[in-house]
Design goal:
- The chain is α/β, with parallel strands linked by helices and about 325 residues long.
- The chain has two domains: about 120 residues, Rossmann fold; about 150 residues, Dihydrodipicolinate Reductase, domain 2 (2-Layer Sandwich), CATH 3.30.360.
- It contains nine helices and 14 strands.
- Helix 1 packs across helix 8, helix 4 runs parallel beside helix 5 and helix 7 packs across helix 9.
- The longest helix has 19 residues.
- The relative contact order is 0.15.
């Protein structure tokens, strides 16, 4: 495939093995070309479905290979900024896992590096590539629910494993960086608005990381309330309530895994359900990245978008500390 983007992955993270590496392997216009890991045995799971994959024992060696066009960074959160900058300096386009930084100010340096190198660099915010979210945004912008008055969001799972990086403060763990990024970010993306104020932040911490957060905010014309937890049963839903209707996404974040993706529009006695089966938003994300790299097509989630969500996260933690 002459025009294929040759992808390298920094680190043999389990998420990369189970989702993103497979998505790169399956995506049109993409080739899973390299994996850098210091533990050669961790490459076996990748080689099982991509036997031609080249394995490097050092991240810098992969970045120095002129045969690698783009890099996916699934490293622990606290390493995202460092290795995104290193990849950009090496002339690679970069797709980095969320959250791409631990504070909004750090993203300024990434924006500067992106602009200086001319490479594409962004956060792996896969939901905006899913047709359920694109449809929901279109309905909202068409006025299907009238004037928006309230947003209600929930995303939770139960992960009490103290050894997991999400439960370790030194690796940038916590429920808000892991999944609050979705409930906050999708509200911003669909409405095109930034919060005027974080009005309430009730956050429970364990071992220095947030494990349950109940957060409220005020936007121009509507309120919002989100619950995120790493100590609750799996649950997710986003609801947008307007003057003339209600828009609900039943599997907004793990479509096809948590449940089938559905967009439900309720107007009075009318209830319309649109379903989106067999859609892999990770594959769509890789394909969109390739189109943006090759053809200059606008990418739907920029570093500036990521900075807006991170600024919200920063404000939530500031509010919780008051």
């Amino acid at each position: 495939m002459a025009d294929a983007v040759n992808w390298g992955i920094l680190g043999a993270a389990n998420f990369a093995k189970e989702h993103m590496a497979r998505a790169i392997h399956a995506a049109d216009g993409a080739r899973l070309a390299g994996l850098a890991t210091s533990n050669r045995s961790k490459a076996d799971g990748f080689l099982a479905f991509a036997p031609d994959l080249k394995v490097y024992n050092d991240y810098d060696v992969l970045l120095a290979d002129p045969g690698i066009d783009a890099v996916y960074v699934p490293l622990p959160n606290h390493l995202h900024v460092e290795w995104t900058k290193k990849a950009l300096a090496a002339g690679k386009h970069v797709l980095c896992e969320k959250p791409i930084a631990m504070s909004a100010g750090e993203i300024d340096g990434l924006i500067a590096a992106r602009d200086a190198t001319g490479c594409l660099a962004t956060e792996a915010y896969m939901i905006v590539h899913h047709p359920q979210w694109q449809r929901a945004k279109a309905l909202y912008e068409q006025g299907a629910i009238g004037a928006l008055r309230h947003v209600e969001g929930l995303f939770s799972y139960n992960n009490p494993d103290s050894d997991n990086i999400r439960n370790r403060p030194e690796t940038g763990g916590g429920g808000i960086p892991d999944i609050g990024v979705y409930t906050y970010g999708c509200t911003r993306w669909l409405t095109g608005q930034e919060p005027l104020e974080i009005t309430h932040a009730d956050v429970d911490f364990e071992n220095g990381v947030d494990v349950l957060a109940r957060v409220s905010a005020r936007f121009d014309g509507f309120s919002a309330h989100w619950v995120n937890s790493m100590r609750m049963h799996n649950a997710q839903q986003m609801t947008f309530v307007g003057t003339d209707g209600v828009l609900t996404l039943t599997a907004p974040f793990n479509a096809g895994v948590y449940d089938q993706a559905e967009v439900i529009l309720e107007n009075g006695m009318t209830r319309t359900v649109e379903r989106f089966p067999r859609v892999n938003h990770y594959v769509l994300q890789v394909e969109a990245f390739g189109r943006s790299m090759r053809d200059g097509v606008d990418y739907p989630w920029t570093l500036e978008d990521a900075k807006g969500t991170q600024a919200m996260i920063d404000a939530v933690f500031d509010k919780a500390a008051q």
